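re: ur question from yesterday

yeah so i grabbed the chain u mentioned. its 484 aa long if i counted rite. heres the sequnce exactly as i have it in my notes:
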Amino acid sequence: MKAIERTLIVLVATTSLLVAGCGKVTEKQGTDLSDILFENGTQLGNGDAEFEIKDSYILPEGTYTMKGWIYICDGASLTIEPGTVIKGDKATKAALIVERGGKLYAQGTASEPIVFTSAQPAGSRRPGDWGGLIMCGKARNNQTEMIIEGGPRSKHGGDDDADDSGVLSYVRVEFAGYPFATDQEINGVTFGSVGSGTKVDHVQVSYSNDDSYEWFGGDVDCKYLIAYRGWDDDFDTDDGYSGKVQFGLSIRDPKIADQSVSNGFESDNCADGTEVAPVTSCVFSNMTLVGPVGQDSGFENNSEYIDGGDLNPQNGSKLGQFQAAFHIRRNSNMCCFNSVVIGFPVGIIIENDKGSATQEAATDGSLEISNVFMAGMTIIGSDKNKSFVDGYTDDSGTPDENVESFSARYFKSVASDSCIAVSDLKLNSAYAPMTGSPLIGAASFTDSKLSSGFDKVSYAGAFASESDGWMSGWTDFDPQNTVY
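ran it thru and got these structure tokens back, copy pasting raw so excuse formatting
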């Protein structure tokens, strides 16, 4: 069958999907897929570093190898059918980048997720086997116009907080983060000034060679996110990100941590710590973060233990230490509610680095960590990056170990139990609450920051109970051995 004939049939079959999943149909469809598919229709992109998609295409369900950096340009779109598998090529550092004005419609289903994964065979996949997934939009950030992190050419930022970059739903992203230069990796999923018109839900990032998720500005809301065994931070927020995120799970591999020290949440207003607007004011609720402490009885937070194990890619990425469940600094006003964090060396760092007033923001309630259960931490708080002592400093200088940290005192002031035993949480092996867990019935949505955009559930953490099924069908916690 000719490519154009196949595309037209696909168009008829998928119109209802597009209407249901996106609320609209792209303007141009039925374009010859041979423009973007090569090697008898099995390869997406031609391997170039700047392969451009300039029209609108529907990619039929199937298995493809993606080669090179592929840009979905302004005015273009790529719709990926449910059940599709796209394998990122290692030699060409494959990556998919949605530019400002471009759109990616990746609407999978619970039974037919869309998978971006390594092209390496089962058993030999590693973090950083390919580039990653980037979405850029026209929403605001506090640096006006920015080049996206990780190496691609793409700019992001504008003045349209309701901008629409498409759909990312029931999607897995595995083994991304190729370091194209020293200390420069693409994240598993990167959002650059992505607007609230974009739909993001049910996304699992596994074995990323950098952050699992990072937001630079923007206003996109997200639900049902999983960060599994990433290299650096799980949820990293910068440059004025002001969206809402609800229901998330992160689980660390005790053998994998970054040289920059790995955190559950890391949040800055901007790199130089100034108070430029829009201020990073994202709000998280119903998150469950599981750190390395307690996962392995032999865990030690040092290079002798943290060696990457069988997953060390030997690609120049530097290993380091684990740090905190929360690292909030540089004038960020990030907030988190109704959540549980387990087993990190440090529970929370609220840091006044680079002349910032982050601790003052916590005192006046602009930054708020509330109704969060903390269990199994080595220490509750620290006031300085890469300092593992509970000592006080208000300017990121040398902590005074004779005075309890601001961060520990703050958390104790907003938590009924500042740090409890993990066993007291009564969680099963999947970190869902069992009968008698204090997380059941523990949620509160009275804070004004939770007044809109959140499901008003009764429980703290990511799961209602052992029978909560939002991860069923579409997730994979052993992608190393999955045969695609």
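noticed a couple things. The helical segments are 3-22, 358-364, 406-414. also Residues 33-481 form one domain.
anyway ttyl
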